[in-house]
Amino acid sequence: MSKMAGSPMLPQKRARPDSKPTLPRLLEPEQKIYDLIESKKDMGMLAPDLKRQADLSTHIFNKALKALQAKNYIKEVASAHNKRKKLYMSKRFEPSDAVTGGAMYEDGNLDADFVDALRKLCLKHLKSRSIATLEEMWEYCRESPVLPEGCKLQQVSEIVRSMVQLKEVEELKSSGVREFVRVPAGTVCYRSLKRSSAACAVRLSSIPCLICPRIDDCTPDGVISPVTCEYYNKWLSF
Length: 238
Description:
Layout: H1 28-39, E1 45-46, H2 47-54, H3 58-70, E2 74-77, E3 87-90, H4 97-100, E4 105-106, E5 109-110, H5 112-129, H6 134-142, H7 153-165, E6 169-173, E7 188-192, H8 198-205, H9 230-236
Antiparallel strand pairs: 1-3, 2-3, 4-5, 6-7
Helix pairs in contact: 1-2, 1-3, 5-6, 5-7, 6-7
Pfam families: RNA_pol_Rpc34
InterPro entries: RNA_pol_Rpc34 (IPR007832), RNA_pol_Rpc34-like (IPR016049), WH-like_DNA-bd_sf (IPR036388), WH_DNA-bd_sf (IPR036390)
Keywords: DNA-directed RNA polymerase, Nucleus, Transcription
């Protein structure tokens, strides 16, 4: 039976803002590669992982990858953690801080000036307050005109952790009395050990923890730990 001329039109579905864009028809290998890259959003995908998951021959994979770049659907992004490997990302995403390293990196390289400025601010705050929590140091650093673009709590955490390892700063828990009276009992806080030097600053900027992509998973008694990390142990013995 034919449709009646006056039958109402069905409403069209609206595309969600975060939905994958509709692209002109791609060849099957191109579509497979694009879908994999798109699924990683702002994290991108390394070429070896992409090739393995796409399950394509080297010739077809390389040809499809070049075609997607030529069509301006994907881009090559530099990873702060491994500059020798190519990372691919959809053109509609900007790389996350986990890829670029965030404010600690500039053009894929560790920004030593930023690291040193953050370190000095943390030490200055500790010396003026005697005892401070991580959040207090972060608040002080991000409001300082020395860092016009501010900083993130994770960045301050990494700097302070490095200073603890260099014995510039001591980590301890508040007792809630005397010098700790401002900090609730049991709260982790820090104080300066007054061991500031140019040598410490140089060593701090080279600590492997600052560029480790697994820093959030690293704990003293975990599977990933400074106790078992070969890079950290080499750095300590340098």
